[in-house]
Amino acid sequence: MLRKSAFAVSVSLAMLGGCQTVDTTKSGVVGVDRDQRMMVSAAEVNAGAAKAYAQMMGEAKQKGVLDKDPALVARVQAITKRLIAQTPTFRDDVAKWPWEVHVISTDEVNAWCMPAGKMAIYTGLIQKLNATDDEIAAVMGHEISHALREHSREQISRQMSTQLGIGVVGALLGIGELGQGIAGQVANVTLNLPNSRNAEVEADRIGIELAARAGYDPNAAVTLWEKMSKLGGGQPPKWLSTHPPHQDRINDLRQYAQKVAPLYQAAKGSAAAGK
Question: pLDDT for 18-30, tens place per residue?
Answer without folding.
Answer: 568 888 999 999 9
